[in-house]
């Protein structure tokens, strides 16, 4: 199994990504991310791979890739569509430096899913700003 990793350019939080994707899925279904380059290792990705999103300098969430299809950009040029499962799965935060496009991410190097634990169960967790949650997670306090 192989994954992809990509910067969520312009998104400041997981909620921001979710809102953007919900809008896009309503106006241009199905939920997909378009990219100019087609992954040559598509078979490995479709064997259970996910797209890991880097948001605000950290890998924060992943989405399962359900299909990889040829597509066309709004200007008519060819591209590739990564069809995504709508579920955003939180992962353990991991810093990531900026890069362009997408990169392959071997399963062994992918951050594990973040268990829903005591932090999420605490009163006020959802009201806490995303930046504060991220800082506390970096310090190992969440």
Characterise the protein shown here.
The model has no long low-confidence stretch (mean pLDDT about 90). The chain has one domain: Roll (Archaeosine Trna-guanine Transglycosylase, Chain: A, domain 4). The radius of gyration is 16 Å and the shape is globular. It has helices spanning about 15-25, 40-45, 120, 130-140; strands at about 1-5, 30-35, 50-55, 60-70, 80-85, 90-95, 100-105. Strands 1, 2, 3, 4, 5, 6 and 7 form a seven-stranded mixed beta sheet that branches. The relative contact order is 0.22. Strand 3 and strand 4 (about 60-70) form a beta hairpin. It is about 20% helix and about 35% strand. With about 140 residues, the chain is of the alpha+beta class. The protein contains four helices and seven strands, in the order βαβαβββββαα. The longest helix is centred in the first third of the chain and has 14 residues, at about 15-25.
Mean pLDDT across residues: 90
Beta content comes to 35-45%
Which CATH first-tier class would you pick?
Answer: Mainly Beta
Number of domains: 1
| Overall 3D shape | globular
Task: Report the sheet with the most strands, covering strand number, pairing sense and barrel closure.
Answer: 7 strands, mixed
CATH architecture field? Roll
Question: What Rg, in angstroms, do the CA atoms define?
Answer: 16 Å
Distance between the termini: 29 Å
Helix content: 10-25%
